Amino acid sequence: MDALVLGIGNEIKRDDVIGLEIVEALEARLDRPAVAFETMNSGRLLLIDELSGHDRVCIVDSIVTEGGEPGDWYAFDPQAVEPDRESGGLATHNVGLGTLTTLGEAMGESMPAITIYAIEVADPFEYGEGMTDPVREAVPELIEEIGDEIERELAADDRQNAVGRS
User: Fold this and answer.
1) Which domains does the chain have, with CATH numbers?
2) What are phi and psi for residue 75, nearest 5 degrees?
3) What pTM, to 2 d.p., does this model score?
């Protein structure tokens, strides 16, 4: 298995730094050649070639939803949350990750399974240093969840490869 953990955020915005911080912690925990770690500034268009070639991609970012409380976190498949015209949700230039994956497959690219992990924030645009308390308190649980999930998948892949060699 070849995995990519991608943190999206902005270092100068308080809670929007969350994706960058979590990826840094996961990189320290998951020191395996099969897992790549990248960070990117919010607002940059994800390109098909950045995602293709990996078996698994975990994207970590902040999110604002109706009814969510800062510090709540979610894990979901991008196909389930394609943007609509009014919201532009989870999209850059109105191309959602689900659409991007479908487009990549249509172009003959090997597209990964993608899971988005998002932590609810009150204001992703607030400038400043240090996350707000509810968001900071949610970080360890999400690091554990993502790390455990990747470790389970790596272990399953190792077992499958061992069976294939015997």
Assistant:
1) 3-165 (3.40.50.1450)
2) -130, 130
3) 0.85
